[in-house]
Write a structure and sequence with these properties.
By secondary structure, this protein is α/β, with parallel strands linked by helices. Helix content is about 30%, strand content about 10%.
């Protein structure tokens, strides 16, 4: 997923292991999910921690626990991972609240024809009606809880691999999704995904975002599951925002954009984990991709399917080896 159309080597600025910056610095007068919570939620049921718990004597376990498994990151929801999406989302946001009023970060990833260009994460809802029911239930299950949601990674970068009819359908569904979060999840900051700095011109991406209803939600996300460093990602996001002509906020996925990016998009050798979080409400930096989860059967993990945790991938991201 997140295949680059133009690929170049980039210099990284994020160190592999840095202290967390708590999500506590938002203006208290702003009714934002940051101001309503006490920091990011580190879910003990995400793949890295589950692997660590199951392999306590493995020589990699302690390092993976310290550098990845205990850090706040997003939970990805798909049509197959959680058959009862309403119950799954409500349980996740409720668990975050019970853990000390922590901030849950969720990814909605179930569009029909998902990952059209990369194909490693192909799938999604079978019909338009099925997706509309799924995303409506997703938003309603969050309800008044504070949350951050990334809406459909890849969705606006895949147009080169889609027909005009498929693009029209996708735009319609993204408009529906933004409307559902605006109407049913008032304390959620939702972000439409805008690809990455190697995947389309900012003006082109801005036009696609606008056509898909970005003005209804908090803003847009960049670099989800990719490796472009934070400086380039922020520059890309700033140019998109200028092209939109709005004050939309944006979110940068910093989970894997540390040192060593070699220009590949699928389980590349070299890159390290990036900075953990930021308190800037206009330009969040969060872990969206779960480090150690494979991009697909490719690169340094040719036998590990997309979305599956691989301790060797995790170790590479920690050490850069």
């Amino acid at each position: 997923m997140r295949k680059s159309i133009t690929v170049s080597l980039v210099a990284a600025v994020a160190a592999a292991c840095v202290a967390a910056v708590p999500l506590l610095s938002a203006d208290a007068a702003t009714a934002s999910p940051l101001a309503q919570t006490t920091g990011g939620f580190a879910d003990p049921k995400l793949p890295a921690m589950k692997w660590v718990t199951a392999h306590p004597t493995d020589g990699r376990a302690a390092t993976i626990r310290a550098n990845i498994a205990t850090r706040p990151m997003a939970h990805w929801f798909t049509g197959t991972s959680d058959p009862d999406i309403g119950a799954a989302v409500a349980k996740y946001t409720g668990t975050a609240k019970s853990a000390g009023n922590k901030l849950p970060v969720l990814v909605a990833y179930n569009l029909p024809g998902r990952d059209a260009c990369g194909a490693e994460s192909a799938g999604g809802a079978a019909t338009v009606a099925a997706y509309q029911s799924w995303i409506s239930t997703f938003a309603a299950a969050i309800g008044s809880s504070p949350a951050i949601v990334v809406i459909e990674p890849d969705s606006l970068g895949d147009f080169a691999c889609m027909t005009a009819a498929q693009i029209a359908t996708r735009t319609t569904l993204l408009n529906f999704a933004t409307r559902m979060f605006a109407e049913k999840a008032p304390n959620t900051w939702a972000y439409l995904d805008a690809g990455n700095a190697n995947w389309g011109a900012p003006a082109t991406m801005a036009a696609r975002l606008k056509a898909s209803g970005v003005t209804r939600v908090r803003g847009f996300s960049v670099n989800v599951s990719n490796f472009v460093n934070t400086t380039r990602s922020k520059d890309y996001a700033t140019k998109i925002r200028a092209a939109l002509g709005t004050s939309a906020g944006y979110l940068v996925d910093t989970s894997r954009n540390g040192d060593g990016y070699n220009g590949e998009w699928c389980n590349p050798a070299g890159p390290r984990i990036g900075t953990r979080s930021t308190a800037n409400p206009d330009a969040l930096e969060l872990w969206i991709k779960n480090p150690g989860n494979s991009d697909g059967t490719c690169g340094t993990a040719p036998a590990t399917p997309a979305g599956t945790f691989d301790p060797n991938l995790a170790q590479r991201l920690i050490t850069g080896a």
